[in-house]
Amino acid sequence: MSGTTSELARFFPIANEGAEVRSVAGWVRDGGTRQLSGFRPRAHIVVTWDEVSRAIAEAVAGECVVTDHLPTSAGALDQVTIIGDDPRALEIMFAAQQRGCAVTVIAAPDSPLVSEHARTTMVPPHIPFAEDMSVARTLATLVAVTSPVATVAEELTVLSTLVDEEVVACHPDREEVTNPARTLARTCTQGIPVHVGPARLTRLLAEISIARGVPALSATARQASAFQTNDVALSIVDWSDGDAGNDPEVEDLPAAGSPAVDIVTTLRCATRVAAATVMEVL
To answer: What is the predicted pLDDT for the residue at 260?
Structure first.
């Protein structure tokens, strides 16, 4: 089958997600995070105001402090990542720079955060024609600034390939029987989707869905039974094994138990949920 013109147009930003990760990997390889080499921050602080960015930070960098302001204790021993273009963001960036924090900015290319940042502030690249907000760019940048500099570029390169595979599997032109995003979209038409599984993962998936105009809830497996009701049409989407919507086979996956497994699973699932929101299921 062929995707509709509307599906293909809305899928275009999602199709860039592998390239977004690859771009961040190249940025790291070219020295974009060189100032973090040998630096062991007392704390990784993520300052953001939107729920998707907050959920990304909580999902992939569990030991981060996620907040909407710069803590009074933040200083030269800390790494600060600012995500988004809230009116308070510029003041927070200047304050973090003045205190000697290692600062990273994730924002739109025309944002004052990008044009006004200090020379030492780390700013990941923004690929042409991409959306201002990319889950993949945000996730990959957080991984880049919270992981060992020596190995993270290679890990992100592998991740970009796996995201590309997910994008191909979820393309609107792909038949539904082998398209996990279209299968997921059909499941979600049966009721408000309740994403069930690891709490941080499913909260992110629900927030991505909501941000793209599709109401959603999240729950752990233990909480899922509470959502069984005849009063509201709900559709349980189980991510407990990372396999909602017929997961395509994943090769070159890091060994079980590796922290990178969570990153791969998180971004592949996030890409699938985003793709499902563009599908027109009859």
So the answer is: 47
